[in-house]
């Protein structure tokens, strides 16, 4: 039974049927964050009651969000994050068998009514949600016939929304060979299903077979990066760190920026020299050397950073920040960054460029030149860069022309 709680849920009133209109994606994402925060707060005092709240929210997702325009992907991502935050609460809750069975029945009904697959991640962890091997095995027995039908039906288009739930239950129940045999019916191979086969082989301590199984899962529209991460983790778990790095490190990781990409790999492989990692990343992205300027700067390879930015473009604003930050501590590097910024600006590189973006590297270059005793040569170089301006509307010349000496030719 769910123990009594003094907390009265706030989120249900915000997730009524068709609560959100077509253009309410931003508001819906906000309400999801608020609901997660509320449930997590309750979980610190009453995990079972919080888990019941999580089930309640999951039941309400499709009815409340049905009318929202999700074409941008923001809402789908928000729902996914919501489920990833709440599923551990539901899995770990110390509920009795009767309570957990009731949760499962409610969630299954919600999955059947889900019009866009919001609750697919729930199915992926259905075996864990069962709370025991016995319950998971019971669910597997109920679902496996429908999975076999969907995967062997000669008519195209057969689909069963509970396929991953069945695979998850077989895995949790320890029915590994049965899971692998079932996956042999799936043609063509589909990674969201086959990843359960990888887990089954790992549970049988067959790491080489699991690696080969994952590699054989590649194909059209399959997520290579996710498969690479899985293969990398298999090798790392086997203590084959160098092989994991050589085969998968550069492709198994990523980030919103090139610096984040580097940091993720460096964190995974602390034994590797950071300079070697950077060199490998640079070699893997020909024509994009300038993108690694910030990373080279971050690890103290200043000469390399300037070399990279001479070979391909880098955001002038990034170069301006580097010139400003290092004007006192590494003046020669600051000078190189400022001049590189002006060169790329004059080559019409950069987005939403303002007058300040142009005057900043010019002033910093002159300031650095004065400190280094190179004022005359730097002024001459700046004049050449400005004279060769190819930016739209000669923007660099327009901004800097009035600041040059009258005798300086354009």
Overview of the structural elements:
It is a single chain. This protein has 22 helices and no strands. Helix 17 packs parallel to helix 19 and helix 20 packs antiparallel against helix 21 (375-387). The chain is elongated and about 85 Å long. The mean pLDDT is 94. Helix content is 66%, strand content 0%. It has helices at 25-43, 47-65, 74-92, 97-113, 120-124, 126-130, 133-152, 163-172, 176-183, 191-203, 207-215, 224-237, 241-252, 258-268, 274-284, 293-298, 302-311, 316-325, 331-346, 355-372, 375-387, 395-400. Among the domains are: 1-124; 313-403, no CATH class. It is mostly helical and 410 residues long.
Question: Briefly, what is this?
Answer:
This protein is mainly α and 410 residues long. Helix content is 66%, strand content 0%.
> If helices are DSSP runs of H or I spanning 4 or more residues, what is the number of helices?
22
Q: Give a count of the beta strands, DSSP E runs of length 2 or more.
A: 0
What gap, in angstroms, lies between the N and C termini?
Answer: 83 Å
- The percentage helix is 55-70%
| Strand fraction | under 5%
Q: Uncertain regions: pLDDT < 50 for 5+ in a row?
A: none
Structural class: mainly alpha
Work out the oligomeric state of the chains in this entry: single chain
Q: Give the topology string: H per helix, E per strand.
A: HHHHHHHHHHHHHHHHHHHHHH
> Given the C-alpha coordinates, what overall shape results?
elongated
- Report on the biggest sheet: none
The average pLDDT is 94
**Rg on CA atoms, Å:** 29 Å
């Amino acid at each position: 039974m769910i123990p009594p709680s003094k907390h009265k849920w706030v989120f249900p009133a915000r997730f009524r049927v068709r609560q959100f209109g077509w253009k309410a994606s931003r508001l819906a994402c906000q309400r999801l964050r608020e609901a997660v925060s509320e449930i997590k707060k309750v979980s610190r005092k009453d995990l079972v009651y919080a888990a019941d709240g999580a089930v309640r929210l999951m039941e309400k997702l499709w009815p409340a969000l049905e009318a929202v325009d999700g074409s941008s992907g923001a809402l789908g991502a928000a729902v996914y994050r919501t489920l990833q935050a709440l599923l551990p609460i539901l899995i770990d809750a110390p509920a009795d068998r009767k309570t957990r069975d009731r949760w499962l029945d409610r969630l299954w009904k919600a999955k059947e009514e889900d019009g866009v697959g919001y609750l697919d991640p729930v199915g992926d962890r259905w075996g864990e949600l069962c709370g025991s091997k016995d319950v998971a095995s019971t669910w597997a027995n109920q679902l496996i016939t429908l999975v076999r039908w969907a995967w062997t039906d000669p008519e195209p288009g057969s689909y069963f929304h509970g396929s991953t739930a069945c695979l998850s239950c077989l895995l949790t129940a320890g029915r590994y060979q049965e899971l692998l045999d079932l996956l042999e019916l799936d043609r063509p191979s589909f990674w969201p299903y086959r990843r359960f086969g990888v887990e089954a082989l790992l549970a049988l301590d067959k790491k080489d077979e699991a690696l080969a199984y994952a590699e054989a899962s590649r194909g059209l529209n399959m997520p290579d990066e996710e498969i690479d991460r899985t293969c990398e983790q298999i090798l790392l778990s086997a203590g084959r760190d160098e092989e994991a790095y050589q085969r998968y490190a550069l492709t198994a990781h990523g980030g919103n920026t090139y610096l984040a990409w580097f940091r993720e790999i460096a964190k995974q492989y602390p034994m590797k020299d950071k300079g070697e990692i950077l060199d490998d990343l640079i070699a893997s992205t020909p024509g994009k050397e300038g993108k690694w300027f910030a990373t080279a700067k971050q690890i103290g390879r200043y000469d390399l950073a300037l070399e990279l930015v001479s070979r391909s473009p880098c955001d002038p604003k990034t170069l301006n920040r580097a010139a400003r930050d290092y004007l006192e501590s590494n003046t020669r590097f600051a000078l190189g960054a400022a001049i590189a910024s002006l060169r790329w600006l004059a080559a019409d590189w950069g987005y939403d460029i303002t007058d300040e973006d142009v005057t900043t590297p010019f002033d910093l270059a002159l300031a650095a030149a004065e400190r280094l005793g190179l004022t005359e040569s730097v002024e001459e170089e700046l004049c050449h860069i400005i004279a060769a301006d190819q930016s739209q509307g000669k923007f660099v010349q327009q901004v800097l022309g009035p600041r040059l000496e009258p005798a300086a030719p354009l």
